[in-house]
């Protein structure tokens, strides 16, 4: 595999790249007005943007009709239409996961042919992370064989869902559900919102609209939705795990089935990890090209014609190191997800344990990679891209897309708390195992044996003194071992404090976990994900074969990433006596050496950036254009003016 | 002094607050359409924004006519018009500094009466930080008694100056200057750009325009400017330090005079430090109020009704701790600046040394406080403000204002390099002093005796072992001493490597400083500013008397800030054996204790936030409004609809 193949595979999935490229050029040749938003962000107001979005969407749908299903489901990759991402990866995928085979077939047909456009309406004004607290309500009405949906007060209004504001015809909708007065839990419905055949008129009983201009996804409509005694047919309840019959009898699947059903939702987080890597790398790619462009018009300052390495170059290389690592990990997460799906088919007895593990990993990786994307883009906008503040550099739009990522699809802190709570459990299990390994349940054994088994090694085998003794910054494995051991001891510390507070019984557990210890739990969970990131990459490198320059580059990038982790966590390494000043001393020079081994142009050329193509295809390359204008202007227009120049210009 | 007084004093200067408040309400009552931009950022495109800006400016100018000069010069504080900030603090102040008394009088009269609107045009397409490399050129033409200005190629075009794009009538303009073919250095001119009496038509020979939509200051025009054989009267050369006579004879002041002249420019950076604090705190203030508002509409989650402290609360308290510290330091910088001006008047023999010190401090403080502002606003937008992503929360606009701050008025890295180079010199002087104190020059003695004298103490008195021995996280002074000592040893380390590389003579010095060691120099300079920040605050607290609750609060905030510095630099403290795990252990609990001693509401209520007033006065408080609408809607409109509700809604 070469680097280009790796990037395309991770971002678009195997083989999709060529198809996406073709579809894109088809779109632009047939509909030249389908220009994307890059570089236009602040030249349009929200309304103008919405209109443009709707046009782009129509054109794209026309191109896509009848094409391969896999391509269609990745249509958002063809152009920057986030709307479609939600339609396929939130709306349709929820139906695919919670619907009966018949329901799936019915809605797939409509969704893939763009006869409906769907939103995912879960978050309410009063409830984001706390899904169990939702207030939207659905009551089954025997008489009319329909569900009556209600949002009873402002808190229960849906608030935030993308596409809900003006564009969608339908949404999937979560509500507390009652049949004959009996509560049957939070269920999911497909709810018609607007009539596509009648100028997208809202159905009576629906009150929906856009929540207002925002920073990030400016031209995507995010909506609110209030329903009052709104009737939908019984069959619009997604019935894979919860069947309600015409006579009001109902059957609800076991907890395990439901958990597994929701499990497929976490695929979205895995997809997001790759998409954040793409977002960050495309920003860095733009920055690099804008620097090349700027060379023509700017004096070659130190950093444009350098032999040495300064801050901008360090940022550049560290961006690639960080984001390429997340990208390789996203491929490992995809493999895990595939294994999980296979395990379902094979009725694996450990299936819930497998689910738990991939859940806490994908949650944690979503959080850390969205932060990494934001960091990368911010630095590009301010420092690395010489025209980064300007719209047509493409960076402001990248920033707009990165800013909400720590919030949507799960607030990062809340996600990392979930990762952290799993790690707390793991520590209890390790304590138990220390006393007697025999007493462990299968679930507990699985926890100790899966991807996190290095903790067991830390607990039972590794000795801090040996790890310290062997530590050598040039030796990847030894650094890795020291970081793992540090992480282990850090979590152990926090876990012990928490458990001893729990024992006193003075404070409720949820207060301890969600408030008093929240920051520490989030902190060690971040550290954990960084360690997993290195582990995943290293194993991806070992398990795949690469063209030699690519392999060397990937190893160097990973080493840089590893050392930046040491920088980040060296204080903990000191604290737990897993490092000291003399062990750390060589880092600065070693990093410097590693930087020089990276060929920037190789990284850049291996990354195919559709956003850069958009820029070119639309000639928003104003820098070049404007400079040309100015040159022309100087040579032509002014020669005349100069001649008839008035001798005296007024002082005022 | 109480906390409110401190804030108002630092942000607006003594006594100005009431006047600004009055002017603002006068503006809104006379011109209700002068609504500010808060909350409107993404509802207007750039053109709409420009038009609104021009209107607001006109109204404001009408209000201000004939008012007190100090108030007029702070007109940008009355409403969010950055244009005016540049007009007074860059355009007029440059004239005040480089013009003859006669020139100053002439332009002050026009500027204060808004008969001209000025830009500050220094940066060129090809030259930002490197002012000596400018390519714009001015030649004195004996025949017409005028200067002929030229931008000879695209690189020499001015690029970025605010107000230059569409609004200004004049700018101050830097150019390489020649008289009778003789080079007389970079000089500054007042250049007419547009005719105010003729629909702002550009004068022939001028080609100026807006550089395009951008993120940050979206509705401020940033411009480009090309001049071709453009004549301006000789008297438009600012002649305080460089007189050119009609006959082409000229007289240039000595280096010292010129340096002092430019010195007053650094006042702008001092002003910026306070303005970044204001930007950050107003964002935190909005976040707090938006959280209060949200309580009405959202379930009271852990973090809205808390006894304990979670991540959001920590962010909130640390924001206040960090930004209040910078604010107190800005007052110290203002004092230093006043002392500097007095020293000029008194012909102090050390005047250049005094200038050097305040220069490197204001440069470093500008850099670090602009980063701190960005960090605060980003966190508010994403986490602390429940509606932060939405425009009408006010946060996106705050972010837009914060993003370019690390770039304008000097790129932060370049500024910190200047601070860092001064510190390198200081180390050479300390080495010299170690050998023999007698051999020091007056300049060198001054360096060791000024605000940085604690380094001398570190070099000659303090012993690391004692400092470590006395270190106690509860004892402010002991922590301070350990941080200072760590900083000293860190700089010493880097300085020694640099000097030993310089000795070998293998690499040019500028390459070592500007490239190879750039990141390390920037790093220790940041650390230095943080230490100075604590030192300044502590001394401000000692030198002023406060109402007791205020004093307690300020001390607690400063202690929190100090401990966050320990968190940031503890790895260096370990490295130089100025801390260890057991000394650090109490930090987490101590911080927690300090957090609980802070009364959030006291902080919030003491901070008068005009931006919040704008929000109210313009009812952009959509959250409230919209929720009211929804409630009304639910109770009225829907009662009808519900009755005539069709029994069956189509599935599609
Ligand atoms: C651009 C964008 C697009 C979106 N698109 C959609 C969409 O298509 N469909 C949809 O349904 N939603 C969507 N959302 C909503 C999004 O999923 C929610 O904002 C998110 O789940 C967080 O919920 P919240 O905003 O209510 O925050 P909260 O749940 O109130 O969390 C905010 C903070 O409260 C604290 N907190 C919350 N719970 C806990 C806890 N248990 N313990 C400790 N602390 C806690 C944390 O500090 C957290 O940072 C979108 C949001 C954005 C910004
Ligand atoms: C919103 C905004 C408003 C502005 N308003 C004005 C205005 O009103 N008037 C005006 O004249 N200008 C204005 N500017 C321009 C601003 O002052 C310049 O952008 C700034 O001085 C930096 O110059 P530059 O962009 O050319 O970057 P450069 O000077 O090219 O610096 C960019 C990077 O190069 C590296 N670098 C540069 N020099 C060195 C060195 N000596 N050693 C090592 N590394 C180095 C650093 O890493 C630095 O981060 C504005 C800019 C912005 C963004």
Considering the chains and any ligands shown, give keywords for the structure.
homodimer, 652 residues, alpha+beta, Butyryl-CoA Dehydrogenase, subunit A, domain 2, Butyryl-CoA Dehydrogenase, subunit A, domain 3, 6-stranded mixed beta sheet, 3-stranded antiparallel beta sheet, disordered C terminus, binds flavin-adenine dinucleotide
Describe, in plain words, how this protein is organized in 3D.
- Chains A, B: Its cofactor is FAD.
- Chains A, B: Belongs to the acyl-CoA oxidase family.
- Chains A, B: One of its GO terms (molecular function) is FAD binding.
- Chains A, B: Residues 321-424 form the Acyl-CoA oxidase C-alpha1 domain.
- Chains A, B: This is Acyl-coenzyme A oxidase, putative.
- The structure is a homodimer of 652-residue chains.
- Chain A is of the alpha+beta class.
- Chain A has 3 domains: 13-112, no CATH class; 118-253, Butyryl-CoA Dehydrogenase, subunit A, domain 2 (Beta Barrel); 265-604, Butyryl-CoA Dehydrogenase, subunit A, domain 3 (Up-down Bundle), CATH 1.20.140.
- Chain A contains 25 helices and 13 strands.
- Chain A has helices at residues 3-12, 16-30, 46-64, 69-73, 82-98, 101-112, 255-263, 267-295, 311-345, 351-384, 395-402, 412-435, 442-449, 454-460, 464-470, 476-504, 509-516, 518-543, 548-575, 581-584, 587-597, 600-606, 610-617, 622-635, 637-643, and strands at residues 118-121, 137-141, 146-150, 158-162, 170-179, 182-192, 194-195, 201-202, 206-210, 222-227, 230-233, 242-244, 250-252.
- In chain A, helix 7 packs parallel to helix 10 (351-384) and helix 19 (548-575) runs antiparallel to helix 21.
- The longest helix of chain A is centred in the middle third of the chain and has 35 residues, at 311-345.
- Chains A and B meet through strand 11, helix 10, helix 11, helix 17 and helix 18 of A and strand 11, helix 10, helix 11, helix 17 and helix 18 of B.
- One flavin-adenine dinucleotide sits between chains A (86, 120-123, 128-129, 160-162, 216-217, 222, 404, 407-408, 410-411, 413-414, 417, 514, 518) and B (301-303, 310-312, 383, 389).
